[in-house]
What we know:
Layout: E1 3-7, E2 10-13, E3 18-25, E4 34-39, E5 46-51, E6 57-59, E7 67-72, E8 77-82, E9 91-97, E10 108-113
Amino acid sequence: QVQLVESGGGLVQAGGSLRLSCAASGIFFSINDMGWYRQTPGKQRELVARITSGGSTNYADSVKGRITISRDIAKKTMYLQMNSLKPEDTAVYYCHVITIAGSWGQGTQVTVSS
């Protein structure tokens, strides 16, 4: 059974940084694509960043250059380093195993104040 637990969210001023973590169990990082998504009220959940089983990364245009996705295979943890945060980055951030349907964490709230 896949379990994903996000942490690291919080309140930060514009221009600040946060690092989100996603601790996973029940999966092998090296054979699964994973991603960070975010959602605001009334909007669809959107992909922020993706890391493939081989370690390649992709980013939404809105976060390129400011956000970095990474993973520690031994610790079974995925990270999202967010720098130069903007108020429009405010959302609930979710961890997802892209290659396993329905595998979502509970989300962590990120609030960026102007």
